Amino acid sequence: MTLVHDAASTAAARDCVVRMKLDPAPTAMVWVQPGQKHEPIAVPTVSLAVGDALVAIELATICGSDVHTTQGHRSAPTPLVLGHEQVGRVVAVGAGAVTSTGAPLEVGERVVWSLTIGCDTCDTCIRGLPQKCETVKKYGHERLEAGWELSGGFASHAHVRRGTAIVPVSRSLPAATLAPVSCGTATAVAALDAASVVTPLDGAVVIVFGAGLIGLTACAIANDRGARVIVVDPARGRRSLAARFGAAATADPTLEAGEPGSLETALDEIGTRPLVAIEASGSVLAVASAIDSLGIGGVAVLVGSVSPSAAVPLDPEAIVRRLITLRGVHNYAPRHLEEAARFVEKRHDVYPFAELVGATVALGDLDDGIEAAAGGGAVRIGVAPGLDPVKPVTQTG
């Protein structure tokens, strides 16, 4: 790709804005409504403000929330560029662009970046919750706007804005290992961090509901920290996968108590009640089971309930008498993304993270990829802009 600084950039430099014309123009896939295919647009001009960066996307992965949005199960401002799990290489930087640790961001670095953009100055950011910034913006979740068309992962490039945690990653690991780090992997780290505030993981029994990306990663991390992990999922293939991610036992929640392979049987075989429950499926029944399964002083961390659902029956007396803690985790802070990246880099040879990404489609075949992701076979489906060129039908900028 050729970067040509616009003549106007000289004047813009006074305001520390770098305006570039790119050849060939980056492409973004725009979603409008359920039942309508994505449309590619070309974005030939990108303006990088202070702290911004332009990243060429190597691989993106399709998250369950992307599927739910395209199916109409989640509200979203349209038109928008979906996608928020990706890895790529920095091709241009604005003045003062830095990594999550404050080091200068360099062209050529391979990076992942946070789902959210914080301001660093509001009360919520100062409290250490930038994912809930009062002016938060989220990659893959914002309405398409002039000047920030490259706002999601389903594109050839991403315009990464100031206030985003940017984490350099290994140049040698497979992209399939790294792309999901910026969503499911970092969220799993945040969930276990929330649990660890209440009780140590070392020596504890941890029960994980849902063997998707978050659940499997939480299983691996908890196992590394000395916990014995039970993974609960109705899909036999996912339970088998959980064993490869360190699960000491698995259970099928559809089986009746007393049946081999049931949750109750797994708990009996472990011999003690869990002190930590991670609910990563969003199922109302799983939420109730997560709370009910805990021993005295246990903590249930709810991660999967990110869309409207029925209410969960709650026995407040049981919560009080058993000293149960309930915690909600939504997204994550920069430190969780950093820890997630380092964990995958160090432990990719122990746990099969790369195998979680099944088929990989070209950017132009994104709708086929989303259909495959909705089928639930692979934990993730990949989207690779480099597989084939996409001819834009509309131009912006």
From TrEMBL:
<dbReference type="InterPro" id="IPR017743">
    <property type="entry name" value="ADH_phosphonate_catab-assoc"/>
</dbReference>
<keyword id="KW-0479">Metal-binding</keyword>
<keyword id="KW-0560">Oxidoreductase</keyword>
<dbReference type="InterPro" id="IPR011032">
    <property type="entry name" value="GroES-like_sf"/>
</dbReference>
<feature type="domain" description="Alcohol dehydrogenase-like C-terminal">
    <location>
        <begin position="214"/>
        <end position="345"/>
    </location>
</feature>
<comment type="similarity">
    <text>Belongs to the zinc-containing alcohol dehydrogenase family.</text>
</comment>
<protein>
    <recommendedName>
        <fullName>alcohol dehydrogenase</fullName>
        <ecNumber>1.1.1.1</ecNumber>
    </recommendedName>
</protein>
<dbReference type="Pfam" id="PF00107">
    <property type="entry name" value="ADH_zinc_N"/>
</dbReference>
<dbReference type="GO" id="GO:0004022">
    <property type="term" value="F:alcohol dehydrogenase (NAD+) activity"/>
</dbReference>
<dbReference type="InterPro" id="IPR013154">
    <property type="entry name" value="ADH-like_N"/>
</dbReference>
<dbReference type="InterPro" id="IPR002328">
    <property type="entry name" value="ADH_Zn_CS"/>
</dbReference>
<keyword id="KW-0520">NAD</keyword>
<keyword id="KW-0862">Zinc</keyword>
<feature type="domain" description="Alcohol dehydrogenase-like N-terminal">
    <location>
        <begin position="51"/>
        <end position="164"/>
    </location>
</feature>
<dbReference type="Pfam" id="PF08240">
    <property type="entry name" value="ADH_N"/>
</dbReference>
<dbReference type="GO" id="GO:0005737">
    <property type="term" value="C:cytoplasm"/>
</dbReference>
<dbReference type="GO" id="GO:0008270">
    <property type="term" value="F:zinc ion binding"/>
</dbReference>
<dbReference type="InterPro" id="IPR036291">
    <property type="entry name" value="NAD(P)-bd_dom_sf"/>
</dbReference>
<dbReference type="InterPro" id="IPR013149">
    <property type="entry name" value="ADH-like_C"/>
</dbReference>
